[in-house]
Specification:
It is built from 12 helices and 12 strands. By secondary structure, the protein is an alpha/beta fold. Strands 7-6-5-10-11-12 form a 6-stranded parallel β-sheet, with helices on both faces. The chain has a 4-stranded antiparallel β-sheet with strand order 2-3-1-4. A hairpin with a 2-residue loop joins β8 and β9. α3 runs antiparallel to α4 and α4 packs antiparallel against α5. The longest helix is centred in the C-terminal third of the chain and has 14 residues. The radius of gyration is 20 Å and the shape is elongated.
Length: 292
């Protein structure tokens, strides 16, 4: 059996659920039951076959409604591997840090192209960090305090999953000076990120090797899955950029969160309209069980 979870916090109407059930029937998916997870916020439509046809029938059809299609069995996950920038926080840290050097537009343009998959991630990271050479180290802490904001739902997602026994790992192509405090604030078990090299209180314009990129993200998910003796189905990955694709593709449920088109097209599910708490509804967890 499969479920199509419809998510639209505060605005999911019964007629939308009825329409979804009819669309699944027309697509040959053999729908059975419709049940609220939280009335007005999220609901499950269970069906018997053809999950790809179900995605095609439902995704993008209803205004402001996200749809997650997956098997019913194993939907509650025991490992979360998440990106940081524009996923667990609302900004791209390197772009904001560049603002303190007066070159944010120049660096942000490179970041956008890299996240769309138009540039090699490692080369683009080297190029951007090189432009920060000579920036005073104190700008890092100022940037984190003044410009970094948690994505709505981030803390609730991670702390709820951990309260249910899951492991949560933040893996970022950004920098440890941001990722480690962000991970601690949200409640992750561990943070993995790049190390900005600093000498005499200034950025050298270089990043320590090896660079944390797409390969590291995939390896982290697979290594933790093996260490925790989990099946593929028990893993959840979420990110927004091209360097998140490999981990999204090997996860039991890979989520493209407010993502670039290349990521949204390849992921197993997309969250385009709701915040990160949608990932709890996708696991069938009602609001009464969330840890805020």
């Amino acid at each position: 059996m499969f479920t199509a979870t419809l998510i639209a916090a505060g605005r999911l109407a019964p007629n939308t659920l009825a329409d979804a059930r009819d669309r699944l029937a027309a697509a040959g998916c053999t729908p059975t039951t419709v049940a609220w997870i939280d009335e007005g916020d999220a609901a499950d439509v269970t069906f018997g076959s053809a999950p790809e046809a179900a995605r095609a029938a439902l995704e993008g059809v209803f205004d402001h409604v996200d749809v997650v299609v997956q098997p019913v069995e194993g939907r509650a996950k025991q490992l979360l591997v998440a990106d940081m920038d524009s996923t667990m926080i609302t900004v791209e840290c390197i772009d904001e840090l560049a603002g303190y050097a007066g070159i944010k537009p120049q660096i942000a343009e490179i970041t956008e192209r890299a996240m769309r998959g138009e540039l090699d991630f490692e080369a683009a990271l080297d190029a951007r960090v090189a432009l920060l050479r000579g920036l005073d180290e104190t700008a890092i802490d100022r940037c984190r305090a003044e410009r970094v904001t948690l994505m709505p739902g981030a803390r609730t997602l991670v702390r709820t999953m951990r309260a249910r026994g899951a492991t949560a790992v933040l893996v970022s192509g950004g920098f440890t000076r941001f990722a480690e405090p962000v991970a601690a604030e949200i409640g992750f078990n561990r943070a993995i990120a790049n190390v900005l090299e600093i000498e005499h209180g200034e950025l050298t314009g270089t990043v320590a090797r090896p660079i944390v990129g797409a390969a590291t993200k995939k390896a982290t998910l697979l290594d933790y899955r093996a260490e925790l003796d989990l099946g593929e189905w028990a893993t959840l990955a979420v990110g927004d950029g091209a360097n998140d694709l490999t981990m999204i593709e090997v996860a039991g449920l890979g989520i493209a969160f407010h993502a670039k088109p290349v990521v949204a097209a390849a992921a197993g599910a997309r969250i385009d309209h709701n915040d990160l708490s949608a990932l709890l509804w996708a696991q069938g967890i009602p609001r009464a069980e969330w840890v805020d």
